[in-house]
Amino acid sequence: MRIDVLFADRVGIAHEILAVLAKRRLNVVAVEVDPPHIHIDAPELDVPGFGVLDAALRAVPGVESVTPIDILPGTRRRLHLDALLAALPDPVLAVDRACRIVVANAAAATVAGRSEAALTGADFGRLFGDAELSDLLVDNGFRLAAGQEVTLNGQPFLLDATPIVEDGRAAGGVVTLFAPSRLGERLNALQNFDEGGFDRILGESAPIRSLKARAARVAAVDAPLLILGETGTGKELIAHACHRASPRRDKPFLALNCAAVPESLAESELFGYAPGSFTGAQRGGKPGLLELAHGGTVFLDEIGEMSPYLQAKLLRFLNDGRFRRVGGDREQTVDVRVVSATHRDLDAMVAEHSFREDLFYRLNVLSLQVPALRERGDDILLLARHFIARACAQARRPPCRLTVAASAALLANPWPGNVRQLENVIFRAVTMSDGAYLDAADLELAGARMEAETGGEPAEPSSWDEAAAAFERGLLRRLYPRYPSSRKLAARLHTSHTMIANKLRKYGIPDGT
To answer: Which locations, inside or outside the cell, does it occupy (predicted)?
Structure first.
């Protein structure tokens, strides 16, 4: 039986309590003293004997109660700790001040190829074949952020260390080893926490409905995907949505913009680098996106900007899933889906020999064409209202609305920068205005449109009415060929049929077009 003795602390009381059990020849196998409690494990104590012992212990000055318990608290903590360590998927080791292993979980024992007991007492650095590693831990006060790479039984891990503090100084530390793919999952959670699926792609126009339907089909197929479309159409958003709808949804989605980094950096970012591969390289090397995203998706944005050298290295990886780190001699195999995107005409680049034809075919197994904003005009106002709500929230100002003239200006604009340009125009207008409505002038689009109509510098109007009339006439002339009736045009501009009919007569449209 195990008992909990509650007592008023005083010198010698624990000894007196144990003497009572010794006097009755009760074998004690474990004692835990945690004032005002003393927990005792006496296997020979039974229920009948407990009543006699209870009376004897209460006779000891300071003893307040004696209660049977099922397990000693220290034993419970050890069992819970063992269960917790066993449940952790990452290798975890606790080390003392001398960097000798005190505790290792099952994952660490499996990777090391030893039993947990065999790891106990081993020098931490020597376990990894790096005697200086123990000195590095001690010198840093057992503080290392995940980034120091070590190798255990031929497998690379990123090391993270947290100190155990006693009396204000480090008494050792807890070391966690992350496989690159596990760190990739953490990066994915940080970078893509608010990225959604196809529900995040706003729009009800026919082109966008067709895109969503096709994207949902290709998302489920585990093959390279090439996303084409003009700048600002939302290609990365489509790539995220396809990842979220794929069997790899629970694994990392990591991106590299091939146009934003130089070739040497892009290579190490994508493939990683080996220890000592170049001056300034991180001690121990560094995994690249392919390793970090193991099991998930790597998104290569602006693939058309990739250098010929990297094109060849990427082609080799796509062919057999194998690669070498920069400066390394060991081949690695990872399982990732490559999704790429570009606004460039890859067919033309292949013809000009500026993009590898064989790589183009490997990337273009599945493809999506993202429509330009001008091709999905029915979505312009829907997107504008969404961006207005978001911009107002960011600016901490009351919501505002578009006037009829502003809506018409948005619909008439050609949007060469697509959705990104629309978002920026709305954000600027919301930021720079204070009213409850956004008018056409707030959008700062009229000048560009008048210049396009006149083929040069916009003519300076003599009055406000002349400027408004020029805007109306240009808008109706632009839209009438696509909506060749007053009713269709009124529906397109969300206004009355009578007003549109009057305006068409005023400006001699269609005869005057």
So the answer is: Cytoplasm
Hunting for tokens 């720079």 — which residue is that?
A: 432
Q: How far is CA 118 from CA 80, 109, 129, in A?
A: 21, 9, 16
Inter-residue contact 431 to 442 (CB < 8 Å): no
DSSP conformational letter for 39 = E
277: tokens are: 């591969």
> Rounded distance, CA 107 to CA 65, Å?
43
Long-range contacts of 192-200 (CB under 8 A, 24+ apart): 192/240, 192/253, 195/237, 195/240, 195/244, 195/253, 196/240, 196/241, 196/244, 197/240, 197/241, 197/244, 197/245, 198/241, 198/244, 198/245, 200/237, 200/240, 200/241
- For residue 217, the surrounding DSSP H or E stretch is helix 206-219
Percent of the chain at pLDDT exceeding 90:
43
What is the pTM assigned to this prediction?
0.63
Length in residues, the chain = 513
| CA-wise closest residue to 57 among 22, 95, 106, 93 | 22
pLDDT tens profile 390-418: 999 988 888 899 998 888 889 888 898 99
Q: Which of 198, 202, 205, 227 is nearest to 374 (CA)?
A: 205
Structure tokens at 206: 């026919």
Averaged pLDDT score across all residues of the chain: 86
Specify the 3-state DSSP secondary structure of 415. Answer: coil
Mean pLDDT, rounded, for 502-511: 80
Picking from 242, 234, 472, 466, the residue whose alpha carbon sits closest to that of residue 370 is 234
